[in-house]
Design a protein that fits this description.
By secondary structure, the protein is α/β, with parallel strands linked by helices. It has 2 domains: 2-57 and 108-178 and 207-242, 2-Layer Sandwich (Nucleotidyltransferase, domain 5), CATH 3.30.420; 61-91, no CATH class. It is built from 9 helices and 8 strands. The strands form 2 sheets. The protein has a 6-stranded mixed beta sheet. A hairpin with a 5-residue loop joins β7 and β8 (239-242). α6 runs parallel beside α9. The relative contact order is 0.20. The model has no long low-confidence stretch (mean pLDDT 94).
Length: 252
């Protein structure tokens, strides 16, 4: 089994992908466009793919009285109705993420690009993930920020900061991925290099690369440690897989 993480995007920015094997070696990583994926996948008959994009539109579950009652929410209020169940479950724990609209036309460009990506992956034989399925090719939705938060046990630094990238790479390194140790990268930060403008952070991944790697790691957990994952949300409007056996009630 190969574990694929995809951090899609829209517009001019390319998507990022990462393939891990069963020993958490990085088999391949890079950037490109969705049309590149069929060729990349052709080498791997068995693949579990984690995609950082909503699996489906908002089906309106959070507006239904019985669902709202399940979470102790007022049936008279519309609060949280713009979110899918999985999104509400994460946000109420202080794991911030988007809200997915119910209409395709009103969805942001990157969300629509994600839905097209899922269509392409299904054309390659990938089925929606089920814990008891033996299908050789499956996919599921992931949210890298939730992965990092759950594995750290707290909300990480912002991913677009140097400390946020160092923190995320250190977590992945400690999880067993064959990445440069970010602590050794910090040895480059000397008075001489700062004054000369010669800092070298070549071993430090970008936040998009780290999101792709975290997604692939979540796929690894889903296949090799099925008792250590949580499927957040309701299958009727899409679940997000998080690599912990149980989510905390709140993350500081």
């Amino acid at each position: 089994m190969i574990y694929l993480g995809i951090d899609p995007t829209a517009g001019r920015r390319p998507l990022n992908y990462a393939f891990l094997d069963g020993r958490l070696n990085i088999v391949a990583e890079g950037e490109g466009v969705a049309a590149d994926l069929p060729d990349l996948l052709s080498a791997y008959p068995d693949v579990l793919c984690a995609v950082d994009a909503p699996l489906m539109p908002n089906m309106g579950l959070m507006a239904q009285p019985d669902v709202r009652a399940r979470f102790g929410l007022s049936a008279r209020s519309k609060t949280w109705s713009q979110y899918r169940v999985c999104e509400y479950e994460l946000r109420r724990r202080n794991i911030k993420l988007y809200s997915t609209p119910g209409e395709v036309e009103s969805a942001p460009t990157w969300v629509r690009a994600g839905w097209k990506l899922y269509e392409l992956l299904r054309e390659q034989g990938l089925e929606t993930f089920a814990p008891d399925s033996t299908a050789p090719r499956q996919l599921f939705e992931v949210h890298p920020h939730a992965t990092f938060t759950a594995r750290l046990g707290r909300v990480p630094y912002r991913k677009d900061t140097l400390e946020g990238r160092l923190q995320r790479q250190l977590l992945l390194y400690d999880e067993g991925l064959y990445l440069p140790d970010p602590i050794s990268i910090l040895e480059e930060v000397t008075r001489h290099h700062l004054l000369r403008g010669t800092l070298n952070f070549n071993g430090l991944r970008t936040h998009d690369q780290l999101d792709a790697l975290a997604s692939a790691l979540t796929a690894f957990y889903a296949h090799t440690k099925p008792n250590e994952i949580t499927l957040v949300g309701d299958p009727a409007d899409g679940q997000i897989v998080v690599p912990v056996a149980e989510l905390n009630a709140h993350y500081e």
